[in-house]
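Handout, page 2. Input:
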Amino acid sequence: MGKQIFIGIFSLLFFVAVNAQSNEPYPFWNEVQEFKTADSISFPASNQILLIGSSSFTLWKDVQSYFPDRKILNRAFGGSTLIDVIRYRYDVVYPYQPKQIVIYCGENDFASSDTVTIEMVVKRFTTLFNYIRAKYRNVPLAYVSMKPSPSRVNLMPKYVEANKRIRNFLATKPNTKFVDVYSAMLTSTGEPMPHIFQEDRLHMNEKGYAIWKKKLQNVLLK
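Output:
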């Protein structure tokens, strides 16, 4: 027992030391604090569409211009995983009174470790979903499917299966939508379209976001 306690304390201290190098007690801490600072200066209006999740939303800096007839609040951060969004739900989800919540997350969960399974990612999503529903029982929620990134073609089979399971889960829940961007981003031979991504072959350019606009046009609430 004593040995286990020692190992646990050592692991905790190691985790704190590693994150201390970036002055963050947890990953993406600083980014989330920037949101909180902005909120303290001017708190966002209610009844906006709340975007949460990872960098495909974070980098969509001009998302409002794609949907000028909607009001959008973007609270996505970094290369976050579903675990990160769950951790910061009190900061990036709970403070607001959204008209709708739209999630893009899960891709980085698989990329973070080969040990992350489809079952684990789906469980993480359902956990996040249940936390959101505990706070907002009737707010419409949409999930944007994991996209096929050229730099992560080895993970595409996992994305396909996880997307399928999340879609089936949401089909059993009211006020939800599943947005399939995955298939719309493939060539006729089933490969990721290379021209819709930036040079890193992971993040999208304007052509990629144009596809997302088309898929989300009739999903986002006016």
